[in-house]
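Please, structure for the following, as tokens.
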Amino acid sequence: MAVTTMWSTTLDNIDAAAPEIEALSAQIEEDGDISQPVFDLLRQCGCFRMLVPRAHGGDELSIQQALAVIERVSRADASVGWNVMIGSSNLVVVGAFPEETFDRVYQAGPDVMVVGSHAPKGTCTPVPGGYVINGRWPFVSGCRYADWVVTQGVVTDGDGARRKGIDGRPDMKLSLLSPDDVGILDTWHTSGLRGTGSHDVEVKDVYCPEERNCQWFGGTPSKSKGIFAVPPVAQLGLFMAAVALGTAQAALDDVTELASSGKRPAYGVRRLAESTLFQTDVGETHMKLRAARALLYAEAEAVWRKAAGGGDFTLRDRAQMRATSSQVSAMCVDATTAAYRHGGGSAIYASSSLRRRFQDIQALGQHAGVGREFFTIMGALLSGEEPEVVRI
């Protein structure tokens, strides 16, 4: 397939690739990972360069444009969409590192796959010129195709004592590692999003030079314009919600196609498509997804406009981003569940795309990045109270 990477054709590239991705969905799920040909196809389509600055050869798309690409890929396959989301959005994490490190990541071109975990599951022990990294991190999606792996660890002294930051919490560092320094443990055996290859990774006594370490919370990033002007932790949830939206829309497409093909429910006297209950649920689900899409893109547009105008993002702004991601994802879980329910007995087979999308959306809904606690934070702020969690 001949492709280009200009924004005007990025979605066209994905539309052209979608049938091939959809045809491989069952195999991707069975393998527990995307294949090398699929990954190469995504790279050719420009999926991993879309947020990279033009100065580094990227397309420098807006958040809204990137969300549209992620949603479309996820409509073909949720696991593939998730890996596109991870590989493209982690650019903002790289922006937290020093300028020279950012330049090194993209020195060979913009089509870079950055993966990792922000959970502080490891340790960083200071040594002359850098840190020694140890630890094990779960949920590292796309790790088999990584160009770079980001981990986060607690800074410890040589005797293992944890250092405290200025806020009294443990001092933590992000570290940027070569895939050669990271061991992949075969742990990704799940009910949903099985094709993401989100295995645990392990690092043992790896030296990481000073310039490839930085502070994620409270640090000063080297990049501050465009996508980097948006609070990095808060914006990641928007990208997750785009995966949910594409998955839910695909589930609705699946069940309406099933109904139009003449499916007749057991003990039913009418075809599924003739059922007023089905028609009501489909109509309601369609409108729910329209509402979810409108909310996601309206929030993204407001965020992008604020970033472009140089505005400061308050705690309430960040909380609203996170609550938006949670709300959109919850609506998508409900929509996919409704579609799956109307699939009846045919939807429980391993070969059913409805079954796969239902399990994928349930797995996505379990992610901490779209949890209900963000409603709590938003509610506390609306009530004039101090929220318990502010690292958003």
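The longest helix spans residues 276-308. The chain has a mean pLDDT of 93.
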